[in-house]
From TrEMBL:
Belongs to the major facilitator superfamily. Sugar transporter (TC 2.A.1.1) family. The keyword rRNA-binding does not apply. The chain crosses the membrane at residues 27-47, 53-73, 85-103, 109-132, 144-161, 173-191, 252-279, 285-304, 316-334, 340-363, 375-395, 407-426. Residues 19-430 form the Major facilitator superfamily (MFS) profile domain. It is a multi-pass membrane protein. This is Inner membrane metabolite transport protein YgcS. Keywords: Membrane, Transmembrane, Transmembrane helix, Transport.
Length: 441
């Protein structure tokens, strides 16, 4: 009977749940390690006497690292497999987070956070590909969307834990803040032990016997390759050739919408206290505001995850960019407004951008075939971080030169670009199998 059941249609089992924890833990750590710099920035800038240039460079360094890590990780994941590189990111996080404790200059922090970014860049194609290639069709979208929720949960944890450490009053508190991700990284390394290789990747390399063994181990002895939708075997296809054959339009869409959804978010997280203070949220209002807004990002992602199979991918993306862009426009207009109004508008942005955030991992993992999936996801992550790194580097300069109101207008403009590209290019992949979604129909 199981010969008639595709693994795309099986119910969730214990392995799926464990794999969700293993991959999801990477996104908790990513959110934590990328956001923790915003918590420590004020103290470390003072302690190391950093200029606005080096503040921007330190804040953008991890994003620059993601550019290289995403591209390299995507290529290596496609050639070496998902399993071998599943431990690279957490190991880098542990080593470099600890190394930051002894950093004595902006250049040293830039170097260590650049390497952290490389590790984050690896996580996108590695953990994402493993999860999507094992997950049944019905649960694929929500589980990929869940990763974004976990990213923001990690970011919220960074602000809560980081502020608690800073409140201890220790002279080296900012160093402890930057070293704290090492604990989460060590736990993640242990949790990921025993993860199998993707049978889809094994089959794409012609390693059918190994793929068969993995399928039986994960789904049960009555399952076999007959239950796996047909995949290309020993087919040597490069990312470049597939882009020329019709996937270039999809790569353009993924890169642009991904960039437009992360540029304002990363800029906010790197300088949240400074941005909120510029918007008249000072003292405890700025600290509490950072946590509240982060929690509202989580709420927005949770709502989007619940709706992703209801309203579809395309509609969700369009509405996400539209309403979040209007919220940023409101912040630009009312940059000198009351603290309550600023929090309401910032909170609205956080909730509405959730749709675009969760689709960052859903769309690129669904729109490309197995043989280039990891490379395409890695390339999308890399290209999106170019704009994010530039935007983050410009934030302190922008706040000083053109003011917070015009900075918010610029962020709204970026969101508008995302809306226009989504209207023109966003496809609908709801209810399609992974093979159907990745085909050029």
């Amino acid at each position: 009977m199981n010969n008639q059941v595709s693994i795309e249609d099986v119910p969730l089992n214990g392995f799926h749940q464990l794999l969700s924890i293993r991959s999801g833990g990477g996104w908790v750590l990513d959110g934590y390690v990328l956001s923790i710099i915003g918590v420590a920035m004020v103290q470390l800038s003072s302690a190391l006497d950093l200029s606005s240039f080096w503040q921007g460079m330190v804040a953008a360094s991890a994003l620059i690292g993601i550019f290289f890590g995403g591209f390299l990780g995507g290529l290596l994941t496609g050639s070496l497999g998902r399993q071998k590189l599943y431990f690279f990111g957490p190991a880098i996080f542990v080593i470099c987070s600890l190394a930051q404790y002894w950093a004595d200059s902006g250049a040293a922090l830039f170097f260590f956070r650049f390497l952290i970014g490389v590790g984050v860049g690896f996580e996108y194609p590695v953990a994402g590909s493993l999860l999507v290639e094992f997950m049944p069709k019905k649960y694929r979208g929500p589980r990929l969307a869940m990763l974004t929720i976990l990213w923001f949960a990690g970011a919220a944890m960074a602000y809560m834990v980081g502020n608690a450490i800073l409140d201890s009053g220790r002279a080296d508190a900012w160093r402890l803040v930057l070293a704290s991700p090492a604990i989460i990284g060590a736990v993640l390394l242990l949790v990921r032990i025993g993860t199998p290789e993707s049978p889809r990747w094994l089959l794409s390399k012609g390693r059918t016997a190994e793929a068969e063994r993995v399928i039986k181990k994960v789904y049960g002895p009555s399952f076999s390759l007959k239950n796996l939708p047909e995949q290309p075997a020993e087919k040597k296809v490069s990312l470049l050739s597939l882009l020329h054959s019709g996937y270039g339009k999809r790569m353009l869409f993924v890169s642009v919408f991904w960039s437009c959804s992360v540029i304002p978010v990363f800029a906010v997280y790197a300088f949240a206290p400074a941005v909120l203070q510029a918007l008249n949220l000072k003292g405890d209002w700025a600290s509490f505001g950072s946590v509240i807004i982060t929690m509202l990002f989580v709420v927005g992602c949770i709502l989007a995850t619940r709706l992703i199979n209801v309203i579809g991918r395309r509609s969700m993306l369009i509405h996400s960019f539209l309403w979040s862009g209007l919220a940023l426009l409101g912040l630009g207009i009312h940059s000198d407004g009351s603290q309550v109004l600023v929090l309401v508008l910032f909170g609205a942005y956080a909730v509405f951008i959730g749709g675009a955030q969760v689709l960052q991992l859903v769309y690129p993992n669904e729109l490309f075939p197995a043989e280039i999936r990891s490379a395409a996801v890695g390339l999308g992550a890399s290209l999106s971080r170019v704009g994010a790194a530039i935007g983050t580097w410009l934030v302190p300069i922008s706040l000083q030169s053109i003011g917070v109101g015009n900075t918010m207008f610029a962020a709204a403009g970026v969101t508008l670009v995302g809306l226009l590209v989504s209207l023109a290019l966003a496809p609908e992949t709801r209810a399609l199998s992974l093979q159907e979604a990745a085909s050029l129909r």
